[in-house]
Amino acid sequence: MSELFIQVVIEGLLWGAIYALVAVGLSLIWGVMGILNLAHGDFLMLGMFGAYWLATLIGIDPLIGLLIVTPAMFILGLGIYKSLITRIVKAPRLTALLATFGLGIFLRNLAHFLWRADYRMLGDTLVGDRVITVSILGGTNFISVPKLLAAVGSLAATALLYWFIKRTRTGRALQATAMNRQAAALMGIDTERMYMLAYSLGIACVGIAGVLLTNFFIIFPEVGIMFVLFALVAVTIGGFGSIHGALIGGLIIGLIESIGGFVGIPALKQVLVFA
Description:
Layout: H1 2-33, H2 40-58, H3 62-88, H4 93-115, E1 131-136, E2 139-144, H5 145-167, H6 169-179, H7 181-186, H8 191-213, H9 223-238, H10 243-263, H11 269-272
Antiparallel strand pairs: 1-2
Helix pairs in contact: 1-5, 1-8, 1-9, 1-10, 2-3, 2-4, 2-8, 2-9, 3-8, 5-6, 5-8, 6-8, 9-10
GO molecular function: transmembrane transporter activity
Membrane topology: Multi-pass membrane protein
Pfam families: BPD_transp_2
């Protein structure tokens, strides 16, 4: 029983790290801009499709495609901000909420139009479906290499973003804008640029998560819905605007989902996250 339970905990932590990166991007956008980006999961879907088509059409593995998709998602974030978000950033929060909800619907329907509702999955990648064996507390446990790389990559991206915000001048400007936009503007900070940067970084984060998921998860237009819902719960647990809080919240969500499916009804494990 203990060996199986440890396996369940490992699985929960691996998924939790991925959920955390999605939540970190969502939390960053909320913390700086005060906008709850309900289209967040749909950008994850675009990141997954971007990695999928790079691998399918050009033969670029997702781990290498990460170097292409990440800046592409950042640039997409810039474009979305300039064309839509800048018009609602000062609007009432309900207006922004409805706008991002509508954006998500548009992106999902665009994906349906371009790629149909088919379920896709990459079959041949650099990491494949390899599994490593580890010994924990005298037992034998198995770790999926694609999931491990996705978890490590997610934690690395989260750590890099945290370092950027806490240790760089631009990051401190982001913090100042999040605390008080008017005061930051009086100090000479271009708050409009900070908003644009925060939104683009948030989209890049969820794009990275999408690419990392492509190695082992199914790809379809609605794939992002579950992830954005889990991210909302994670951010609620950790505190809106807190990166380390989103990290902790994501790990908790992963453990709840995994352990809940182990001790309860597996088919209802995702429901337990919202209980």
